[in-house]
Write a structure and sequence with these properties.
CATH architecture: 3-Layer(aba) Sandwich
Organism: Isobaculum melis
Protein name: SMI1 / KNR4 family (SUKH-1)
Shape: globular
InterPro entries: Knr4/Smi1-like_dom (IPR018958), Knr4/Smi1-like_sf (IPR037883)
Pfam family, one: SMI1_KNR4
Order of helices and strands: HEHHEEHHEEEEH
Radius of gyration: 15 Å
Number of domains: 1
CATH class: Alpha Beta
CATH superfamily: SMI1/KNR4-like
């Protein structure tokens, strides 16, 4: 994790470390997404906030998934809600909901329109998607640790 914190500092990201670090996934997260890969849990629990200097890209933190987060500009399910607003048929709605139940969003960005990275909770792969169809995606890393390594090495630019 030291290498990751060094990268954040060198890249001029803003972050606030959580004072009490205990890996806790709230019930509503598990109810929606199922089992989150264990390798991600220490990262998820590390930060209260983590964003670029311009606050146009950020890692989702526990607070983004809590009930009060729905009142903010972007909550953990913002992209799912945008997709659902555009869905016309019951089949399309079901497909969108099924997609987001399997994919746990960990990063949002506004750099090139709306874009995100998420963990596929069934196989641990990291995916990347963007507007207008968030559910069309590409696999970018075999695991969360591979994803972080690619960011640090410059293969993935946030």
């Amino acid at each position: 994790m030291k290498e990751w914190l060094s990268w954040l500092d060198e890249s001029q990201w803003r972050y606030q470390l959580r004072k009490n670090q205990t890996v806790t996934i709230i019930d509503s997260i598990q109810a929606k997404y199922g089992v989150i890969p264990n390798e991600y849990l220490p990262f998820f629990d590390l930060f209260e906030s983590c964003s670029n200097d311009a606050e146009t890209a950020w890692f989702m933190c526990l607070e983004d998934f809590e009930d009060h987060a729905a009142d903010t500009a972007f909550s953990a399910n913002s992209f799912e809600e945008m997709s659902l607003e555009g869905a016309i048929t019951p089949e399309a709605i079901a497909k969108i909901k099924q997609f987001w139940q399997r994919h746990f969003p960990i990063f949002y960005s506004l750099h090139n329109g709306y874009e995100y990275y998420a963990i596929d909770t069934q196989n641990g792969e990291m995916i990347y998607g963007y507007e207008p169809i968030f559910e069309d995606y590409e696999v970018v890393a075999a695991s969360f640790s591979d994803f972080i390594e690619q960011i640090i090495s410059g293969k993935i630019i946030l």
